Amino acid sequence: MSVLVKQTISEIRQTIMDAAGRAVADGEFAACPLSDFTVEVPANRANGDYSANAAMVWARDLHKSPVAIAKALTDRMILDGMFIERVETAGPGFINFYLSDAFYASIIEDVLEKGGDYGKSNFGGGKKINVEFVSANPTGPMHMGNARGGALGDCLASVLENAGYEVTREFYINDAGNQIEKFGLSLDIRYLQLYLEDDAPELPEDSYHGDDIIERAKEFASVYGDKYVNADESERRKALVDFALPKNIAQMQESMKKYRINYDKWFYESTLHNDGELKETIDILKDKGLTYEKDGALWYKNSVVLAERLRREGKTDEEIEKLELKDEVLIRKNGNPTYFAADIAYHRNKLLVRGFDRAIDVWGADHHGHIARMKGAIDAVGLDGDRLDVVLMQLVNLMQNGEAVRMSKRSGKAITLTDLLDEIPIDAVRFLFNIREPGSQMDFDMGLAVSQNSENPVYYCQYAHARICSILAKLKESGKEPRECTTAELMLLKETEERELIRHLAGYTDEIIAAAKSYDPARITRYAVDLATLFHKFYNSCRVNCDDEALMQARLSLCLAVKTVLSNILTMFNITVPESM
Q: Fewest Cβ atoms closer than 10 Å to its Cβ: which of 249, 342, 517, 563?
């Protein structure tokens, strides 16, 4: 919350406690411990700007009716020096506080003084957080799920930064293991088919069948011709992977850059294999007696570790037995580590080797079952699995004219991230993929995304910013420019629409913190839409270029405050901040 809001709530709590102390001194209250109470914004502003439930909470402590307690407290309150104009009791004993004109003036002053820093806080205390997102398999093109994951992960990282955390954005590249062997096999067969035609082997059902594999094989052939057709199979496959994989990774990096996502770290899985961290991690599990060999493979006692974790969480043995926990393979018969084994080493690298206080992974909803075993594995290597948080993201349905869209008009294939970014404004993609909570399935309306009207949320917010710029430009043409207002001038803003707008501005910092706590950037996009709505409502009800010069300047200051916060939000989410539309 903003400093002023936090200060005001703190002062209200202290005022109530001081009044209670006077009631004890007067013999009205017994001297006894008092339960904690809340100070919150009531649903109906007619019931005050803040409401406290102290009287109802203390009824049992003091053996008095809430109404009697509320009256005793309000009779003894001293409001001098506070941003509170008056206090009233209501209903069963609520104590309602009404903010003074000076409070509203101070909010505008605070926004204009902080400017681009308004909304930022030290809530996170500088703790180091790693946010890993997208991490698409480099063996093929990125898809719609990666599009949502990219916008979600990047904007979540920005929210956390504004809430006072030190954030690292990370992309994990799976450039080792079975999927790379499958990639090599697929490229190999497509390459041989170019030269051997009917004599070439068929592509296995479980390999990669996309056109991108054919394209990479042709590119390889354009450089090396038939040089590798008669080469040793392992040599040929290595050459193909060494040629194609960097191109795929470079393409992913270019797509992310186009999407306005700048990663701090591109982490290669192969480094875990090459520098011994994967072996070291498996050795830790072996030394703890958490592995065994069966059917030529090395297994991890996932069922034992997870059962222990679930018992700590309060689950009974009967409940655990119903889950039918299973063990996991770490090293396959062919000697290749599994994805899970590498994942354990990777998270150990984040939390121990690089020392992040917390790791946040953005995963698709189909990975739900992987969360518990990953947390358990982190426990098993001697760390705290609760230092990993996973944001599960639901699927996206691409819609146009009310119908699902599955094919690209250009290629006739499934729509990729590149297709989407070519067809839809990036501002719209980044904003609209964060308009719903990550855990909700969403329909992405392509028609809405390209529309330029109030139905399009990002356009609506950008238009509010541009409209303020237009107001300022028109006033400048007539020789009127904003100046710094006195507190007394800002206290002239008393219309309902003005007060609603200012109260919304006051809650911005709190909204950032709430979004950081819940890992939900959609709170901020919704806040921005509400801010734009309140501004348009104010603009239509309150004439800015009015005859009263002091009131005009106060309204200009309010416009500038709204412009500041809209700009801060759009900038935070790497969305264009237009001055004209």
A: 517
- 332-340: Cβ within 8 A, 24+ apart: 332/178, 332/297, 333/295, 333/296, 333/297, 336/177, 336/178, 336/181, 337/177, 337/273, 337/278, 337/282, 338/177, 338/178, 339/174, 339/177, 339/178, 339/179, 340/300, 340/373, 340/377
Q: Are 130 and 346 in contact (CB under 8 A)?
A: no
What average pLDDT does this structure show over 559-563? 98
Cα gap 201→238, rounded to integer Å? 18
With a CB cutoff of 8 Å and minimum separation 6, the contacts of 222 are none
Does the pLDDT value for residue 44 go beyond 90? no
CA 118 – CA 440 distance, rounded (Å): 30
Report how far residue 148's alpha carbon sits from residue 417's, in angstroms, rounded to the nearest whole number. 9
**Whether the Cβ atoms of residue 84 and residue 483 lie closer than 8 Å to each other:** no
* Helix and strand counts by DSSP (H, E) for the chain: 24, 15
Question: pLDDT tens digits, residue range 166-203?
Answer: 999 999 999 998 899 999 999 999 999 999 988 889 99
Residue 226: how many CB atoms within 10 A of its CB?
13
User: Two tokens at 108?
Assistant: 């505008």
Nearest of 23, 28, 118, 119 to residue 511 by alpha carbon:
119
pLDDT tens column, 229-287: 999 999 999 999 999 999 999 999 999 999 999 999 999 999 999 999 999 999 999 99
277 and 349 in contact (C-beta within 8 Å)? yes
Angle subtended by helix axes 496-506 and 549-572, to nearest 10: 40
Q: Which long-range contacts (CB under 8 A, 24 or more apart) does 561-564 make?
A: 561/107, 561/108, 561/111, 561/112, 561/502, 561/505, 562/464, 562/468, 562/501, 562/505, 562/531, 562/535, 563/465, 563/468, 563/469, 564/111, 564/112, 564/115, 564/116, 564/118
> Residue 518 forms beta bridges with which residues?
none
Strand 166-173, strand 265-268: pairing: parallel
d(CA 378, CA 475): 61
Rounded Cα distance between 59 and 477, Å, is 62
Residues comprising the chain, all counted: 581
